[in-house]
Amino acid sequence: MPLGRGIGSDSGVPVRIRSQAGILRPDVAMFFGFRNGFLAMDAQSQHLFSLPIPPSTLAALTKAGYETLDDLPQSDSANQLIDVLNIPFGASQTLYSSSQRPNGGGPGILPSTQTAASLIGSISKQKSRRFTTHCPPLDALLDGGLPEGGILELSGPPGSSKERILLNMVRSFVEAGRSILLVDCQNMCDPCILDELMTDNSSARRLVSYLKIGSLTELMMFVNNLSLCNDSFDLLAISCISYPFQNARLTKSARNYILEKIKQALTKVNISQNVTIVVTSQLVTKLVNIDGTTGNFDSVGAKGVMVPALGHVYLPSAKAFRVLVALNGPTLDTGSFRLLAPLKPGL
Is the pLDDT score of 286 beyond 60? Predict the structure, then answer.
């Protein structure tokens, strides 16, 4: 069975698909266009603005990426909104009493009929599940691997192992029988490479969906529709998310707006569906003055340092590992990892 689940033959939409190694590669427009495919809007979902909640609460929820009741996290109920978004208790109770959703049925949802002991045990089990990167030094840095529902950013120069590690994470989820959405922004994770990596696993093509992004417009099209995903997945792997920005002529405000939209989309799928997220990014040179402020070529004593191209503003920072992959040895097989942002306690 080929990669690209959700591409139905009964959609009635003309299909233009390139095929390599038996793997279907839909373009973005088709990926989002199938009637019975990957994205299907729930017309019955109630918008948050229709609820009797304070404007400040609605603004905080909208900024975090929530638009309807179905977007709200189904575990931890009102307490999660209080702790993470500083939503007033009364408003949180209103939101969850309005949702009246059945308990259970989705990933990460704990039935309300559990005893306190079993509930604590289930939460502990969820938090303790970690997925190996198949790179022992990085696993050690991550305290045994990437936790389920966690976020990992790998930034490095060309030739570093960041893309290989991303594919290793895909492999770990396939081995666990989990579903994956792989988004390739630089053609660094070609389906042929993925097919070779998964030759010993017959279920790989059933579990992995592949999407090729060719421009910043296509990336934003993907981001804006991500929350409408009708086909659930456990891992969102994005290869070189910074590449579409490379030749885009953006003002600072436009760039910040796009990064904020990406953050909202990633936050929503991460919190509401407990999706694990792994992204890779390029590095850029930043001039820094002696006192740590941003410098320029005219600054006396300014030094150039390599930093992740998109910074940190596009990531849900409270749950993100940000790792710099450096090449500092005599060969391409030698390097080091530096943890830029550790996971905050309790997450």
Answer: yes
